[in-house]
Predict the 3D structure of the following.
Amino acid sequence: MFASPIGSSTVSRSSLPGAAVRSALLPLLRQRGSGIEDYELIAEQVSSIADRVRVLEDRLAEVESVNSRLEEAALTTARALEDISGHWDAVYEAMRRRDTSQEA
């Protein structure tokens, strides 16, 4: 935890998103002055962001997999509905022929 330069509240370093991390760390690094600690802090943040990116990449792969299965299911459904529609068209056409043949 460290004091946020934006306000007086403390903020967990791991909960800050990328842009907020930079804006929060720059003033803090200028105040601290020790180069080694600065690099350690930056390394922690980069590691945390890299972990989040890996998790997001894994989730994105899962979403893409589900999306491709949903697209395939949608195509199968569309083909089936087209088939059903053709059958109903044939039924209605047969009913019309039957009505016209009964009128004559």
About this structure: Residues 35-103 form the longest helix (69 residues). Helices lie at 18-32, 35-103. The first strand starts at residue 2 and ends at 3. The beta strands are 2-3, 10-11.
